[in-house]
Design brief:
10 strands; single chain; alpha/beta; 10-stranded mixed β-sheet
Length: 396
Amino acid sequence: MIGVTKLLCGTVTPGDPLRYGRDSGKMPANLLQFSRDKRPVVVWNVTRRCNLACVHCYSDSANVTYAGELDSDQARIFIHDLADFKVPVLLFSGGEPLIRKDVFELATLAASSGMRPVLSTNGTLITSKMAQQIKESGFAYAGVSLDGIGENNDRFRGKEGAFDAALTGIRRLVNVGQRVGLRFTITRGNAADVPAIFDLVEKENIDRVCFYHLVYTGRGKAMHKDDLSHQQTRELVDYIMERTLDWHNRGLNKDVLTVDNHADGVYLYLRLKKENPKRAEEVLQLLRFNGGNSSGVGIACVDNLGEVHADQFWSHHAFGNVRTRKFDSIWTDTSDPLMAGLKNRRGLLKGRCGLCQYLELCGGNFRVRAEAVSGDIWAPDPACYLTDEEIGIISG
């Protein structure tokens, strides 16, 4: 996760994380990406069931009942275990988490146990009453997924009227004072909608927008060829930075992030080296604090059945189940070669990733994306759009 607003506009400086000792248990949510102890943010797929059929869904969800999902009692034990391990954030995801009947009770439990519950939803089921329940149950933030404007979103989401329903849900959240953001996964089919997404965020008084780079897993695996070219990605990241600066210069308090491609952080740093060298040095320190891709370290996923994964895109590789072992026991066990490798990957990365001078900033980017294209977990991430010259493999 790259905090474009934080890095580009100087709304966070290296001194801000240091003020808290970089302990995730003491840091505010906006600084967690710079914590030193890297207690994982846990994405919990509370159900696999979903009322939509998104073409890039990493969990390959459908509107059917999935047997064997954690029941309420098992979920409560799991939440208590996470709290004991001092997990800072529990992200309720799916499927569509609002389908789960006890979701508000479980969110309240997470909040009262010292965690920050966060909601990831498609927004289409949010009634006025439900918006109030989301607010009152303690969700610190609600992220609503939109993957285009109007019919383009509906095509991605597999349901006519999904855009209008989601926008209505967003307005209901804003009306009750719930902190809310948009989540937008970038592909060739919707990149042209990014300007309109910025306009929508401003018009609808939305707090945050996250632009996700495509990860080739689940139904998204078939969309590899729908990813942007490297040049298109550079141009889009440039545009995102320009719009972020415009908001900042106009005094609009909006948070812009890009997700799932840590080349963005290096690209932003290289731009600042030319335009604002003093800020570039501060950004370099913040990116070192961040450490790049955090799969298996600072991000975890527990699926609807209780299986623990390195992140939400590693559903094909599980390390254990929270029904039979506590989460912390599974997470700290490095007997599995993948878990051991993700926690100490420097000597395993191959090709451009292994040679990159910015490895400490990027962390080797997305290993699951490398695996999807090459079959090799430690091969270079094909979505890295930085040139060999930029990453120091060849001289200029």
